[in-house]
Amino acid sequence: MPNRIRSRRVTMPPRMDGFKPFGIPMRQLESVGLLYEEYETLRLADYENLTQEEAAGKMGISRPTFTRLYDKARKKIAKAFVEGKAIIISGGTYQTDDYWYKCSDCDETTVSDHPVKHCTGCDSENITLINSKR
């Protein structure tokens, strides 16, 4: 029987919902799904330049699990680039210490340690919780 999937710690939401090839309308594209925890492996290893051991510690997972997630993320991004597909970032098995909100009016992403009712960018009440704080 396989082990249960444990939640992986993600500390920063992506600033965008995804990427798409330049000059092609989204309705004409197929997409590749990238999970929040896969995005986090790329952010920690490639953007923050952490070793896999350090990054795994920040995510609360083992180094082999980090390596598997990192490899899956790289393969998905390579597939999107080579095949001209969009990348959609969403979902996964993750936990956060903060509340993440997305404003529908100004597209600002807000990270807060407590629940908020207004966008910090435009003061709109038209915000949506994009993670489930656990």
Explain how this protein is built.
With 134 residues, the protein is an alpha/beta fold. It is globular and about 45 Å long. It is built from 3 helices and 8 strands. It starts with 7 loop residues before the first strand and ends in a 5-residue tail after the last strand. Helices cover 31% and strands 19% of the residues. Helix 1 (36-47) runs antiparallel to helix 2, helix 1 crosses helix 3 (63-83) and helix 2 (52-59) packs across helix 3 (63-83).
Outline of the structure:
This protein is an alpha/beta fold.
- Helix count equals 3
* Total count of strands: 8
The coarse silhouette is: globular
Low-confidence stretches: none
Radius of gyration: 16 Å
Q: Largest beta sheet: what is the strand line-up?
A: 2-4-3
Give helix % range.
25-40%
Secondary structure layout plus pairing:
Blueprint: E1 8-9, E2 18-19, E3 31-34, H1 36-47, H2 52-59, H3 63-83, E4 86-89, E5 94-95, E6 99-103, E7 109-112, E8 127-129
Parallel strand pairs: 1-5, 3-4
Antiparallel strand pairs: 2-4, 6-7, 6-8
Helix pairs in contact: 1-2, 1-3, 2-3
Attribute tags:
134 residues; 3 helices; 3-stranded antiparallel sheet; alpha/beta; 19% strand; single chain; 8 strands; 3-stranded mixed sheet
